[in-house]
Amino acid sequence: MKSLPLRITGLLFSGLVSNAQAGEAYLGQFRYQYDGGSVYRVTVKDAQSMSWLCIEGDEKGAHGIETPQHFTVADKVYFASWVEKTGINVTQVINLHTMKVYSTITDGKQRFVISGNIVREQ
After folding, report:
1. Rounded Cα gap, residues 101 and 23, in angstroms
2. Tens digits of per-residue pLDDT, 35-92?
3. Where would I find the H helices in 26-82?
């Protein structure tokens, strides 16, 4: 069992090296509707940048342009991670087969794990 974490790490790093660019399916404009009511518009124009805007919820009006590190986990399944200008760390698994998003947001010592539905807008 000791080798399982090494295998997982190896798979993740091999994915980073071979799939450093966003897949075609991940490009476009999406609405992330999180459980709890927050809604974000996320736009991915290319493999180097993405933008987001909170359109509903406690952070309504908050926005940013990010340079995420991301890779393809499987067909239409992506992992993305970035640090916002405020210092907040975000990691996501975006599953475009099931149209689900799973996010972990770390702000200092606080960590939030949330999930929601994805709607393709464009």
Report:
1. 16
2. 999 999 999 988 789 999 999 999 999 999 999 998 899 999 999 999 999 999 999 9
3. none
| H or E element that contains 18 | helix 3-18
Q: From residue 15, give the alpha-carbon distance in Å to each of 38, 40, 70, 77, 110.
A: 30, 27, 9, 12, 29
Dihedral pair phi/psi, residue 84, rounded to 5° = -75, 165
Q: What length does the chain have?
A: 122
Residue with tokens 């493999």: 47
CATH class of domain segment(s) 3-120: mainly beta
Locate the domains of the chain by residue range.
3-120
